[in-house]
Amino acid sequence: MGEKVDVVIIGAGPSGCAAAHRLASIAPDIKIEILEARDRVGGRTMTIDLPCNRSGEVDQWDIGGQWVGASQTDVMQVIHDFHFETYPQPYKGTKFMQLGKSNKITTYSGIIPDMGGLWGALQMAFYLWKLERMCKKVSIADPFSSPVARELEGHTMASYSAKYLTNEAAYQSMDVAAKAVFGSNASSVSMLFFLAYANSSGGVSKLLESTPGSAQELPSGKTFEASYVISTLPPNLLLKVEFHPPLTKATRFVYENLPMGYYSKYIVVYDKAFWKDRGYSGEIVTNGGDGGGPLSVVFDATTCRGTPALVGFIAGSADVKYSQLSKDARKEAVVTALSKFLGDEALNPIHYEDKIWREDPYSGGCPSNHAQPGPLSNFKDVRLPFHRVHFAGTHTATEWNGYISGAIQAGKRAAVEVLHRFRPASISQELLKGTAYDPNPPMLPKGCHTCCVKPLLGCTLGILAVAIVIKIIYNSVGLA
Ligand SMILES: Cc1cc2nc3c(=O)[nH]c(=O)nc-3n(C[C@H](O)[C@H](O)[C@H](O)COP(=O)(O)OP(=O)(O)OC[C@H]3O[C@@H](n4cnc5c(N)ncnc54)[C@H](O)[C@@H]3O)c2cc1C
């Protein structure tokens, strides 16, 4: 027999910490054990120290989850409650774009990038308008129940976009978007899943806009006996856990079809923000150019202390290629590519750092799980309780699925489900909303009514460009 506790939470990422916090807030006397495989909390969020000058002083950057936006209510609440600091993402200045067959580098200053002329811009605007309308009909709670599910079921983001985007730059922008959002090429992301994912974030433009937005055995042999378990493991890792009795086929079916992205994040620290001196924002959107370079999206990563840096991602097929090289070779490839946009000063950084998330055994990729084309008929089972096991983690979120905010929402929801069974008197009907025990489950999440059409997708993809940078240092929360 192992140590007896009321609730075991697997994983001390944002979701596990949020679940623990909600359990402890509502029922302070219950005994909770959080099992974390790493020697740190935070999961796919991770703040690291890097040299910030030639004399060896250090500053801090996020090598995992970084940006948050005002519409991400769950993470904004945590920031407010725990007095975390945020600071705005620098975005002013000329931006670079390299899309289309010619791989020509173009610049733009406002929100409208050069999509190869008016025709490309019009195509993109129409396509985004169409996606916004379709997205409102696809709920992340059950994408397969959508009236557009049949039309989209076998489509990838690439195959569906090819039907509407004959302009090469506009078409390629969907690939950069898929890499930035999922760490995967557009040719392997289900279109139905993309729309459901976007809906959970309040709409396609909110996701892509560019302006400021049971017991578990431990290695030590220690075992726990718990009344309930909350798992926050991403699907790719959950499948490695042995369940007795085994998970239902429906749950395995959906979890087996949710791979993690191939995604590495790099931070390049410089003596000065030379790009700003030239009027550049530091923002780059590129198809990688001739020969498939490592860049996809790049942003200014100057810290709140003012240390100049750039941040970017090597994603999808590019990550497969570059993660096989040595770190020095990746650095060389990245700074050489940066210099083609921003000038030769890019070749001489103070420091280059990267993390290949696909090689991290306790994430197995990043930034989040996505669905490949095929039946999403069982997607609703992703958060269905299994006996005494409840599922959290950002992949189960109904708002901002895949993001830190979604992880928090899911953790809070799973905690309420457990309390509803363990301490029913402590849970109101209001708190039950959106849980497995909601007597009136909503057809669509809140976010789907707030969609708005922004003219262009390609400029800077993702909440990536929007936002407010946050230092979430969970150690200071004291939950682990
Ligand atoms: C490079 C990168 C950039 C990102 N950018 C952003 C961004 O800008 N904005 C944003 O909102 N989101 C971003 N994300 C996504 C965000 O970090 C995740 O959505 C969030 O961390 C998910 O939280 P989670 O708790 O669901 O899962 P995780 O953070 O993955 O936490 C799961 C925990 O489980 C632990 N674990 C794994 N296996 C076991 C086991 N067998 N036993 C016990 N514990 C185990 C892990 O160590 C981990 O601590 C990014 C992620 C990455 C990697």
Automatic annotation (TrEMBL):
| Positions of FAD binding | 15, 36-37
Q: Which Gene3D superfamilies match?
A: FAD/NAD(P)-binding domain, Guanine Nucleotide Dissociation Inhibitor, domain 1
Q: Which Enzyme Commission numbers does its entry carry?
A: 1.4.3.-
Keywords tagged on the record: FAD, Flavoprotein, Oxidoreductase
Q: Where in the cell is it found?
A: Mitochondrion outer membrane
| Annotated binding of substrate, by residue | 313
Q: Does the keyword Amino-acid biosynthesis apply?
A: no
Asked whether the keyword Flavoprotein is assigned, the reply is: yes
Q: Which GO terms describe its molecular function?
A: monoamine oxidase activity; primary methylamine oxidase activity
Catalyzed chemical reaction(s): a secondary aliphatic amine + O2 + H2O = a primary amine + an aldehyde + H2O2
Query: Domain Amine oxidase: where?
Result: 217-419
**Where is it chiefly localized?**
mitochondrion
As for membrane topology, the entry says: Single-pass type IV membrane protein
Which PANTHER family does its entry note? AMINE OXIDASE (PTHR43563)
The text of the family note is: Belongs to the flavin monoamine oxidase family.
Q: What is this protein called?
A: Amine oxidase
